Amino acid sequence: MATTLTEEILSAARGGEPQSLREVYESLAPSILAYLIGKGCDDPEALCQEVFLTLFGKLKNLTGGISGLRTFAFSVAHARMVDDVRRRERQPVLAQFDPQADARLSSSAEETVLGSGPGVAAMLDGLPARQKEVLLLRVVADLSIEEAAKIMGSTAGAVKQLQTRALRTLKDRMEREEVPDHERIA
Asked: What's the superkingdom here (predicted)?
């Protein structure tokens, strides 16, 4: 279960206190991992770990409290995602995932975060890249408009417009497809 960050926890983490560092990780990792999964990264778990290696290395110098920490963490996650896309463009992956060969007994992180069937992931797949990015940052990562705008290198007004358009597109699609209420995005 995710820990609710407080300024006290953040202060202790800046001092290198192990339990506080763990609480920072447990608080931010699920939404960072969901963001990286939603962006289609090849190995989101590894990228999430890279985000925290960077974050913990810079923790002492971060400003802006918890909001500054979240913004920085998602800025790093965004940068790692861009690096992943560039790497894949230079060196495409030749092997495809075979679900029949997956011997895990429990649900994968992807299944847990995105659910099964044609849920959130399928709905987001049809959106333009910038609209998808806004929804991942605003809904999945639970960032403010200002934080999302900073990460995307955009203005708060542009983020609001992108989010409105994306939500309208999803609403229209759900109405056309008559998606059952239990699968709808709130």
From this structure: Bacteria
